[in-house]
Automatic annotation (TrEMBL):
Annotated ranges, domain Integrase catalytic: 7-59
GO biological process, one term: DNA integration
Protein name: Transposase
Amino acid sequence: AAGTHSDGVVESTHNRDQKEFYDFCTQELTLEKANKNIQKYNYFFNYKRIHSALNYNTPFVYFNKLRNS
């Protein structure tokens, strides 16, 4: 049963990555453009996107709450 749960988590993560990142990278990219897109997505993921597993906080906010508690 643990394998089934893990598969679901991986699938969910892949689907989210597909919708939030890869679908926006359909044009031909140079390495420089790809790196910029990755940096933008990393910023979005850590500073703007809320995560249900983090009590609907961004990772940045959640980390700061833990650090200051």
